[in-house]
Each structure stands twice: as structure tokens, then as C-alpha cells.
Specification:
4 domains; two-stranded antiparallel ribbon; globular; small GTPase binding; Importin-beta_N; ARM-like; Nuclear transport receptor KAP120 (Importin beta superfamily)
Length: about 1050
Amino acid sequence: MSIRELLSLSLRAPEPQRLAAELELQQLQKAPLTASFVDSMLNMFLVVPNVDRTPRNPVEVDSDDSDLRLLAVLWLKHYIKQQWRAHKKTNMLNDAERDHIRGVLLFAALHEPHQTVALHLSFIVAIIARADFSSQWSFEELFSVMMQPLRRPHGAVDMVAERRSVDVCYRVIKELAARRLMQHRKQFAMMSVEMLPLLLQYWTVTATQLNNYLQTEEGAIRETIVEKLEKLCAVTGAQQLHVLVRTTKLISTMLLHAFRDLSTVQNGELIRSALIEFYKQLESIVKFRHAFEAQIEKFSRIKHTSKMEEATQTLDKYMHHIAAIVVEVQHAYPVEFRQYLSPYLTLFWNVLNVFSSTSLTVLAAPKRLQIDALNFFANVLSCRLYKNESLMRSDGTTRIIAKVITAAGEVALTDTMVIEAQTSLQNFFTQTENRFKSMINLLIMHYMMLTPGDLDKWLSEPETYFALMESLTAKESVRSCAENLYLTVVQNFPGQTIPALTQIVSSIAAYLIELGRGQISTAGDDGRVLEIDAVLVAIGLGCYDLHDCFEFEPWFLANLVPILINQDAAVGSFRGLPILRYRIVWLVSCYLAQLSTSVRPPLYDALLNLPVFQQTDTGVALSLRIIQTLESMVSDWGFEYDPFAQFLPRSLEYLFATFPQAVELESQMKIFDCLEAIIQACGAHILKFSQKVIGPLPTIWASESDASNLVRSKILRLMTKLVSCLKGLHYDVSLEAGDTDALLAMSTQLIHFSTDVSNPDHVCLVESGLELWNETVDASTVYTKEFHVLFSQTMYLMDRDYEHVVLLLRLLKNYVRLGKIQFWHDHQTIVCKLLLGVIGNVKAEASLQIAQVAEDIVATISIDQLSSIVPVVKSMVRSCIQSQHVKANHEPESVLAAYLSVLARLMVTSIDFTLNVVLMNDHIVLAVLVNVMLRLFYTVGESQLTLLRRKLWAAALCLISMMAEQQMLEKIGQVLEICAEVINDEPEERAEQEAVVDSSEKIDQSEVFGVEQAGFTNHQQNLSEQDASVLALDLRSFVCERMNILASKLGRSAFDQILETVDISVLRKFQA
């Protein structure tokens, strides 16, 4: 079956023919790349050249099925992408065949009549160029052919051919610019030097023709501009605009990737002429765009057609791409751009003013151009290399910095260059007027104000509006760019801008007071509310910069609090939207550090009692804003529980009352985040209100939606936080009977549901469920029947995979601590099977947990019930033995030390059981283990070998020495050195631990981290109870006693000979 038949079947044939054809086409993608196959496809579907480079088959191609041809080109694109590179084993082409295919594809891309097919052909050419240029595909063969239409031979203008040429060239250049090896970057620079003069010449001619056509003579009738714009909507005009836009992007790519090399062409005249031409063309188009807006506004009878809007959007895109070149060049090469600062500062200043002074009722403002202008000013005003003070000596003399490293490479910088840039900035901002003040006013009173589109979005989709306001970036929002520029100006030029801002703030004080008193007759429909909102945004954004010159709290209490607590919902609103209340609540989160403790209680009260809460249709955005501010307040370092205590029940009620109104997942997550922050801040005190927290959770859990499992995961995290507060009950917190019982009962139910792997829909909840399970068992003091039954689910989890092995091992450790002998009696088979299944098959983190579990079992369970743990300990012993083999792939030293700690614990518990049952009286193995212990004692850090474990090791080594074997006796000196070191370290480390415990007990229960400190203290208490016998052991007496017994076994003379090999300083420590 031919390739054409396969493509036709995969496009339109019914099943199963279509599927069979698709599978065969997929297999063909892996077939060797041969000239005959590719050439047959090219002749079958594409425009191919004659000998004289004219199209051979234009009629056949034009009459062919366009959808089938598009599918063929898409298939060919993926085939070429996979198989073209010369080093591919499936590439069967020789150099001549590759050259032929490249030429045909380039010809087809330039002459293809179907636009979409031509687009993908240009992608194929770009893919091949990335692989072959310039080693196998020379500049003359590729770009000279590609750019021939742009030369306009004999003065003929073929806009279709020029557009196709620019499109293909842009795709190729973009692909080549993505190659970042040094040799590729040099090739790109050389290519740009060759191409850019022609491109700039073509762009200048085309742009000048367009501007000359668009210019309107003074006094012309009103239809002139409109008619000219309508003519641009025609085929020729639209193509010309498209070519200009694409050529501008093409030039931008070259300038930004090869600027340094291009700046040396003609002694920099090429770059200079380009930037000058950009300025002229951009200025001209901006004037035309503004004049067109003026006529649209003046003559309401002019109909704004869809074609006119399309032409306007293309003009805006064209302006944006020119401006983007300037913005990016200045940002990447600020020193080289310094001489062009003055004209472009003026141009972009005019852009900001021109498109802010017109009340655009029909045409939308050119937002992307406004973003470019705002970003240009932000980049210039924040540029480090333009800051004169960084280059001046303290005595006022200047110095020369030979090289400065920038993102675009090294640049030679002198004070003269910096002063030149500073002079341009100073002249622009101060020569004719105080433009800093004008800029602050312009930014706040226009660009930072809410737009009609924002208000419409708030009215129709309040949750979406809230999320949008929180996530807008400077690349997509004019207002975000304006805020960024505002911050840049205030931070870098506070002396010039803060007085202007203070003046604006003072001008609104009277209005705010009248509004708070209800004295504004137009409340609810006053446009000044939007201006006040913008001023409050400026105050909030500048909170750090205004800290020393603006007393926020008294101003806030006098001007904003009356509006916040006013019972009339219309106060501070516009079009029914609580605009000022929303902004005031946001402002609180900005100035938390400056609000005194006495202000917080009334502020809590005001936030939780706003009358606008009842307006569920538009008040959701405000509710979410209040929730986020509340989260900030309880997470703040200045938070205290006592002032918040009376508002805690109302806060919980409000959060759960808002949840049904929040439809979007992101909004629901913010509510849960606030609940978690409250639990974290209140610590054990939250347990008094645990019923209010857990009461609504079953209803939320049961609700089904696309994001149900994400909500349930958040509920599990919330419950984990709440259960962890049980570990803080050593504080003086009075609880009613049943408070903790209901909490633990619900936790058990959630654990059972979320860790049930038989339900595949809830597998994603396993990790959160295990974390809750761990926290619940860790916080419990009684081993209940529910815990006992629940443990059987661990085997199902382990049988599924090892993904959660660390959490499961931590859970096992908590079960051993809580259930002790009762747990071990019923579950020892499961536990040992679980440990044997994972030991040696998991990473170091899990292996350390295995050792800790085994050590806890040995320390907790009596020796007569430890027979089932023997295989686990033997497996650990084997790992330690294997570590002595050089070529063995053994465990890390930290893991080996943990395994040896289990063995040492078992030896201290019963040396006979260890030697006879575990080691099977194999003294060779015992000798190897002793050598490993002696080596690791000094190489493993204290994080693994704690005081407790070092003491166990010392005691175990003493017990081993009692065997009186010769190879053991030879190690007595090393054993005594270890014991002496532990004896020396013990008082110091014990004092440090007691100091930590004392400090944790003194922490006030209202502090944010009280729960964690409480958990740490409980852990220390559990540790001391579990290992009391080891920690209380007098190691000096223990060693002396064992040495005396050994002396009686060996005889005094033999024992004295052994002691002669021990350092005298070590012996003195046992004689003291």
C-alpha cells in the first residue's frame, strides 16, 4: 500500500481501517531515510522546481486535496525530525541526496500556495537547518535563495513571495538562535552580520511606504483616516502589515542574539541607523493610532467594523514588536544604549500620556505597547549601570571600572559613560517639569486604577477576579507593569517621589472622612472610589519605603476604619462592588508590622462583621480577601492568642460558611490554608473548639466534584495539624470530656478510608492518610482496639509498592512505642515480614528507619519474645559483613552504624542470646563486627551515633571483651579508649539536652511554634523512659566491673600484660 493510500485511510476511513493505517504509518516513521522514498513524497504532495527554478506542478498541487497534503507534510515533519541527522543509523542519504532534498523542501516552502502547509514546511526547513547549517548547508544555498524575493529584482514587488520569504526566514532564524554552543553562537553572529543590512533595508522601505500612506494631511476630512485604515484591511494591506510584523520579529531575534557583533559593523552605524529608524517609524504609527482614536471618539457615526478592528490589532502588534526590540536591547545592553536614552524616554513618555488621556469608548488601548513603555521606564530607572553613586569615590573623584559583568557578558565601563546616562535621565525628568511627580500621578490615577473590564469580571465571576488579581504578572497586565514601575521609582528616587505621593494621600483625606461619616450623597455610585482605590494600592505597595515617613496606624484609624465598620454597604462601593472595603482589608495585610497589639482585637471584630458578607453574589471576592488577610494576621510574628481567643469561634464559623460559596478549587484551598494557619498559631488551645473544626468536614468530604480528592487531601492535612496539637496538652489547657475522643474517632475513620488501596480512586490519598495515621498514633497515649485492627492495612500497602515505605516504617515505630508487648504479640509476624521485605531493597533514609524500628523493638520487648526478630538482625549482620569486601555494593556507613546499634542493643539486653541465637557462636563473624564498630565509631557523625548509641556500643564492646578470646583481648585498648571518650562526652551532652528541654518548657503556649516544641518535649520524655536503663548506666563502674571479672579469668599477670598496651591517659580516667 502506497504512502498516499495510507494517509488517505488514516484521514477519512472508518474503523478498523483507519487504526490499521495509523499503525502502519507509525512503523514507517522508524523506516530508514532513503532518497527514493522522500523524493516520491515530495513529488506527490509538494510544489517542486524545474531546472530553471520555476514550479513544475502548480496546477496539480492546487487541485489536490489540501487536507491530505497537510497530513502528508505533518507526517513528513516528524519523520525528518527523527531521521535526518547524519549520525543516525537509519539515515541512508549521501551528500548529494541530502543537498537535493534540502533544495526541494526550501523551494516548496517558498512557493507553497496553502498557508498552513507552508507553515509546516518552514518548520521542516528549520529542523534541517539546525542540523546542517553551516557545515553542510551553506549560507548561499540557504539564505541567499530564501531572501531573494526581498531584494525585489527589477523593482518588482511580489507581496505574497515576500511574505513567504520572511515567514520561512523567521522560522529558520528562530531555530538557529536556539543553538547555544559557542561555535553555533559564532555562526549565528556571522550570519546576522551578513543578513541584517538587507533585512533592515527591506524593513525600512516597507515601513516608510506604510507610514507615508497612513499620514493624513492637516485639515483633511474625517473619512480620510478611516478610509486609509479600511484599505489596510484589503488583501495587499493586510499582507504588508503581516510582513512588517514578522520582519520586525526577525530583526529582533538577530539583534538580541548577536548585538555585540552587529555593533561593530560599520563602526556601529548599522545599529545606530536601526535604532533611529525604529524611533521614526514607531513615532509615526503612534501619531496615526492616536489620530484615529480621536476621530472615532469625535464622530460617533463612524462604524467600527470587524475588519477595522483586525487592522487596528495588527497595527498594535506592529508597534509592540518595534517597541519590544528597544526595550530588550536597552535591558540587555544598557551601556551601549545610553546615547539613545533621551529620544526613547520622550517617545515612551508620549505613549503613556497619549493613550491615557483619551476616553477610549470604542477602541481598546494598545496594551502591549503600554506594557513595553512601562517596562522601558522600569528597566532604565532600576539599571545599576546608570547609578552614578556606585562609581564615585568618597572624595568626589571618579575612577574607571575596566570591566563589569552583566547578563549579556563583560562590558567596559567608565564614569563618563555613567554620567552620560545620568545626564539624559536628569534632563528628561527635571528640565521642563518635575516628571517624577507627573509620573507618580499618571501611574496612580490612570494605570493603577481598576478598569471597566475589571469591574465586569468582578460582577460576573468574583472568584476568578480574586484569583486574577493575585496572579497577574508584568508580562500580561498593564496595571501590574504600572505597579512595578511605581515601586521602582519610589525605591530608587524616594526624595523626588515620596513628597508627590504624600501630597496625593493628603488630598484624599477629607473625602475619606466624609465617606466614613456617610456624608457623600453619591455613595455607591461615585467614580472617585476608583481613584481612592488606586491611591490605597500605592500606599500598600510602598509600605516598606514609606515606613519612616508615614504614620500608618493613626491615619488608618482616622480615615479607613470608619469606612470599614460603616453599616451602609453602599459606603465605599461602586456599581454594587465593595471596592474600598476590599482594598482596606488588603492594606491591613501590607502594614501588619506597624499595627500595635491594641488595634488587632477591634480589627478582628471589624473583619468578621462586615455587612457586605451577606452579599453572596459579589461578596465572595471580599470574603476571600478577608480570609487571606486573616491568615496573614495569625501567621504574623506579632500574633498573640489571648487577644484572638474571643474571635476564634467566629473565625471558624465564618470560614466554613464561606466554603459553600467558593466554587473554584483555588478558593477552597485558601480557606483550608487559613484554617491550618489558625490551628498552627493557636496550638493546643484549638482543641477546645475541635468540634467546630471537624463538624463540617464530613459534608465537605462527601461532596463530589472534579477536584474531590484534592479537597480530601487537604482535609487530611488539616486533621494532621489538629491531631498534632494533642502533643501540646502538657500546657494548662482545659478540655471538656469527649473533645479528644471525637477527634481521634474521626481521624481513625479518615485513616481507614484514605489508606484502603482496594479503592483505586483514592490511591492519591494514601500519603496524606499515612501522615495523619502517624500523627494520630504518635499523639495517642492508649493503644485502642481501633488502632490494633487498623494496622493490618500496612501489609496491603507494602504489597502494592515501596512508594510510602518511610512513612510506613515511621508508623511501625510509633506502634511499637504505643502498643508495646500487646502489639508485638499479635503483629510480630507481619512486622518481621515487612522488615525482611524492605531491608536491603530501599534507600538509606528507609534503611535508617528500619534500624530504628528494630532497635525500638529490642528495647521494648522482653528477650523471651524476640525470636521472631532474629532473621531481621541476621540480615543486618550480613550487610555489615559484606561492607568489608572491597568490591561489594554495601550500605552507607550511616546505615551500617544504625544496624550495629541494633546489635549492640541486643547484646546489652542479652549477650548470650546474641552470641548463641543470632551469631550462632561464630567468633569470626563477631571479630569482623567488632572491627567494623571500632572503625565506624570515629567516622560516623553524631547525628547517627548519638550519646545513647555510643554508650550502647561501649557497653557492648566491653561485654564482648569478656569472652577472653585472643583476638578480642587484642582490642581491649581500643575498647577502653572508646569507653573513656564516651565518659568524657556524657556530662557535656547531657547538660545540652537538659538545657533544650528547659527552654522548650519555658516557651509560652501562645507562640506560633508551641505545638512543635511540645512534640519535641514529648519525644524527649518518651526517649528517656524507653532508654532509662542505658542513660542511667554508670559506664565507668560498668567498665571497671567487667575488667575485674576479666582479670580474675585471665589471672593478674596476664591481665597486667594486656593493660601495658593501653595508653596510660586512658587508664587514669578509670582510676579517677
